[in-house]
């Protein structure tokens, strides 16, 4: 561990605190704070021959008068005998160095005076290290930083003197220290109270843990207990060993159940920590279990509340203690009185609790078992009276738009709402806004999205008190303008940019190039909200534009940017060696075209080959031939020259590989025979010079004409002559261009199908009147080529009429009000069938009303009190049903709508008639009246 912290001053009165394993330094002392980082030369010399170190090995000589005194070794007073203090450089200071110092009390020295330190391994006194440096006042100080002079386990001796020209002070006393860099192996940990890997003890039950070091120089221990439940300490605790290397016992009282551990390191005399020892143990749970779906457990406000519950709404809490439990005691808060509920046979209980206030509450529950009360279980839950918030934003808002949130209270007497914004940039004092509530307690919160840093909003209702806050997560899209570019790839050519943003109501765009203030412009948008601007780059290299949009409210979008490369290097193209995909092992060419003016030559090379030169043609381009010697990845570098001026180097990367040609499919799957047809092959590594052959049904092979191949080699189009080809399945063979390529065959590639279907040159036409019961006819139209037969399908409002497949149709009642069409299918041998539909008829009208071939007739005795009966007569076509209306002297008898009528005395001498109305689906109604009979 660190003995002197950075910046701490160290003096002669330092003492070691075993409890903290730190050196305690007096105020105003010096030494450790002077963290000189000056690198001075280290000179090694043997002084045995000169006698300068006479007496080495026989113990230190006493310092003469005038020698440096008040000697300090790493902040400690000089130890004049070995081994001296044990020091770990890693623990001493930021420089990881042993500091040596002292005070010179002799005569004043000149500005040229120097300090002279010498130090040595006491087991190798023949080798002495010197540090000779200028002297600052009368204080001597040096840092021993070199790893070669801080070897682990070595005891060093040192002394110092002052040099002034030819004069020197006597040597100081000799001081000793021993370097110790290692803390040793991990200590052992044991506990009889809490054995490892078993459940024992309990909350509040103390346990003793014995820590035993593996090193003899241990002066203390550092330890820290962890629990899987609750807060764990950040700081380590420390304890002294009774004597050097002795074990210690520490006590720990668990405050939680479940998995625990203790981590321990031994601390040696130099402050080094040993490897860490870990001990796992488990604490038995003695507290009751608590659960509530109504008020779920939560340790923080705004989390996990069940919004169906609120202040004054009772919710169920379940307590569990296991069989044998007597009862449970509970209370809300630490000041309330305890209530008791008995446990059932399973050791469980339920209580209903209605919280009296909002916010995070704590329910304390303890188990009563055999008259003994367990430790309390603290169950924290949130009573959330925060408002409900609705909106239709779908969690995304574009900057500059206005947002409306609808707030509904969940607390009483709400008069207003308070809301504030939460941003990615922390703000400890956000501005809060207030909105008055309506009479029903609701409110609409209108907010202008002017900040793309937004995370969301908090909303509270306010009445007699403030409710819990409601969090609404929102994301504001900064609507950074998107930018597209055309041109400007070459110095002196003009680039045209189009920028647009999702923010509405844009009034201006600010654009700049390469962040140069001199290029900044403010432009008005076009009618569609976009802006178009231009820039002509004068130099090659990387350029960029930056665009910001602004609306009438002064709200700006995020920055939109686009970078591009401007080059004056030549362009390189090659049909045989494309930059994408794999090229074949075939000869090919590369064409260079300059971007510099007046180019006379090109310099080019492949990979690490020596450069070659080629002169430009009259059009300033050049073409070179090249044949790959082997498959692999290649880089072609080209540079153009205009006298002494050279362009940038253009690098063209491509791959040469044996073509793993594949054919995976042919489209269309069915190709009409009878003529030259186009087909499309899908596959891999296809080439324009590949040979395509088709084996037709029956065995004849024809060669196709390759029309095109896609740049990535995955698509080939070709023409194949299928004149005279029989119907059936054809296969395709591709013979790859280039050496060492095997043919690729796709069996069952496509089907030679019937030829084109007949086309209607004149549509089918329906004749006749579209009314129920009428007969309609269809003329099939005319077709090219001519059909050999026809099929028909009648439809009503586009839905096929079942069974209506003839050239005529008797209109059924089911299609009244619908428009009729007929689809004619023209068939021709060796061809697909063609179809054409007629124009629709007018909406089908009802059929003509039925006619009475025999009028209704009244039978019975026409005398008061007697009953008359009517027969409906006969009708053509036959009716589905009849309706009746009796009349007296031509006036309707109310309610007389049946086939019979009982005569009243009031009708004496009056005439009785009955009108019969027919009902038939799809036909108009018809009526007929009977002859009158006179009531007697």
From TrEMBL:
Protein name: IPT/TIG domain-containing protein
Biased composition (Basic residues): 848-857
Organism field: Actinoplanes missouriensis (strain ATCC 14538 / DSM 43046 / CBS 188.64 / JCM 3121 / NBRC 102363 / NCIMB 12654 / NRRL B-3342 / UNCC 431)
Region span, Disordered: 843-870
BP-aspect Gene Ontology terms: carbohydrate metabolic process
InterPro entries on file: Ig-like_fold
């Amino acid at each position: 561990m660190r003995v002197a912290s950075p910046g701490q001053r160290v003096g002669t009165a330092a003492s070691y605190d075993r409890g903290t394993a730190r050196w305690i330094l007096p105020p105003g002392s010096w030494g450790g704070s002077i963290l000189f980082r000056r690198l001075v030369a280290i000179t090694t010399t043997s002084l045995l021959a000169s006698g300068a170190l006479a007496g080495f090995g026989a113990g230190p000589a006493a310092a003469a008068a005038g020698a440096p005194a008040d000697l300090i070794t790493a902040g400690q007073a000089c130890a004049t005998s070995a081994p001296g203090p044990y020091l770990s450089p890693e623990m001493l200071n930021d420089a990881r160095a042993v500091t040596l110092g002292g005070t010179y009390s002799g005569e004043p020295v000149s500005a040229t005076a120097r300090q002279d330190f010498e130090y040595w391994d006491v087991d190798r006194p023949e080798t002495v290290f010197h540090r000779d440096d200028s002297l600052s006042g009368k204080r001597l100080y040096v840092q021993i930083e070199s790893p070669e002079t801080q070897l682990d386990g070595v005891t060093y001796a040192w002394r110092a003197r002052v040099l002034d020209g030819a004069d020197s002070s006597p040597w100081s006393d000799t001081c000793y220290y021993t370097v110790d860099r290692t803390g040793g192996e991990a200590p052992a940990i044991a506990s009889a109270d809490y054995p490892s890997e078993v459940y024992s003890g309990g909350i509040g039950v103390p346990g003793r843990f014995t820590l035993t070091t593996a090193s003899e120089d241990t002066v203390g221990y550092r330890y820290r207990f962890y629990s899987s439940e609750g807060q764990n300490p950040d700081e380590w605790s420390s304890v002294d060993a009774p004597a050097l290397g002795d074990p210690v016992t520490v006590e720990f009282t668990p405050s939680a159940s479940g998995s625990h551990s203790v981590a321990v390191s031994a601390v040696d005399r130099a402050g080094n920590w040993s490897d860490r020892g870990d001990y796992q143990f488990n604490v038995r749970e003695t507290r009751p279990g608590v659960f509530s779906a109504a008020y779920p457990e939560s340790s923080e406000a705004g989390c996990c509340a069940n919004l169906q519950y609120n202040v004054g709404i009772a919710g169920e809490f379940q307590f569990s203690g296991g069989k044998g439990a007597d009862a449970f005691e509970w209370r809300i808060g630490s000041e309330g009185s305890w209530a008791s509920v008995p446990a059932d046979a399973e050791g469980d209980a339920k209580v209903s609790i209605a919280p009296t206030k909002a916010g995070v509450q704590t329910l304390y529950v303890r188990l009563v078992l055999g008259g003994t009360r367990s430790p309390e279980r603290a169950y924290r839950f949130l009573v959330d009276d925060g408002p409900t918030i609705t909106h239709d934003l779908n969690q995304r808002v574009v900057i500059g738009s206005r947002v409306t949130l609808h707030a509904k209270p969940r607390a009483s007497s709400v008069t207003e709402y308070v809301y504030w914004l939460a941003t990615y940039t922390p703000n400890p004092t956000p501005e809060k806004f207030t909105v008055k509530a309506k009479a029903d307690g609701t409110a609409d919160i209108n907010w202008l999205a002017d900040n793309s840093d937004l995370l969301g909003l908090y909303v509270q209702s306010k009445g007699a008190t403030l409710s819990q806050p409601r969090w609404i997560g929102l994301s504001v899209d900064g609507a950074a303008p998107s930018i597209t570019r055309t041109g400007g790839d070459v110095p002196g050519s003009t680039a045209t940019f189009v920028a647009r943003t999702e923010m509405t109501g844009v009034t201006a765009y600010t654009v700049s190039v390469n962040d140069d203030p001199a290029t900044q412009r403010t432009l008005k948008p076009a009618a569609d909200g976009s802006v178009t601007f231009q820039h002509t780059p004068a130099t090659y290299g990387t350029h960029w534009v930056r665009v910001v949009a602004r609306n009438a409210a002064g709200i700006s979008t995020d920055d939109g940017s686009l970078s591009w490369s401007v080059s004056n290097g030549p362009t390189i193209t090659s049909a045989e060696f494309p930059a994408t995909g794999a090229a074949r092992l075939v000869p090919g060419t590369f064409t260079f075209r300059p971007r510099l003016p007046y180019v006379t030559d090109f310099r080019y090379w492949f990979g690490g080959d020596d450069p070659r030169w080629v002169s430009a043609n009259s059009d300033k381009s050049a073409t070179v031939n090249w044949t790959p010697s082997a498959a692999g990845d290649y880089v072609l570098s080209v540079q153009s020259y205009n006298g002494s001026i050279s362009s940038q180097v253009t690098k063209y990367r491509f791959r040469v590989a044996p073509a793993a040609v594949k054919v995976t499919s042919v489209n269309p799957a069915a190709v009409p025979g009878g003529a030259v047809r186009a087909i499309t092959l899908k596959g891999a590594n296809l080439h324009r010079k590949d040979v395509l052959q088709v084996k037709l049904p029956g065995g004849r092979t024809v060669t196709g004409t390759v029309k095109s191949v896609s740049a990535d080699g995955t698509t080939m189009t070709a023409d194949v002559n299928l004149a005279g080809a029989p119907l059936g399945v054809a296969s395709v063979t591709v013979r790859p261009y280039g050496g060492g390529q095997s043919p690729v065959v796709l069996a069952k590639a496509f089907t030679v199908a019937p030829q084109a279907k007949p086309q209607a040159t004149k549509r089918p036409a329906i004749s006749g009147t579209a009314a129920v019961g009428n007969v309609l006819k269809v003329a099939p139209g005319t077709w090219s080529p001519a059909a050999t037969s026809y099929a028909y399908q009648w439809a009503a409002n586009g839905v096929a009429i079942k069974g209506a497949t003839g050239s005529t149709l008797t209109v059924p009642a089911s299609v009244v009000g619908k428009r009729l069409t007929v689809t004619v299918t023209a068939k021709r041998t060796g061809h697909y069938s063609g179809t054409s539909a007629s124009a629709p008829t007018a909406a089908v009208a009802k059929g003509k009303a039925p006619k009475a071939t025999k009028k209704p007739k009244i039978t019975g005795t026409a005398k008061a009190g007697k009953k008359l009966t009517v027969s409906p007569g006969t009708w053509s076509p036959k009716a589905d049903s009849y309706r009746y209306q009796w009349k007296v002297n031509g006036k309707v008898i109310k309610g007389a709508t049946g086939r019979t009528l009982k005569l009243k005395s009031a009708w004496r001498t009056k005439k009785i008639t009955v009108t019969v109305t027919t009902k038939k689906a799809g036909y108009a109604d018809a009526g007929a009246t009977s002859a009158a009979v006179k009531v007697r």
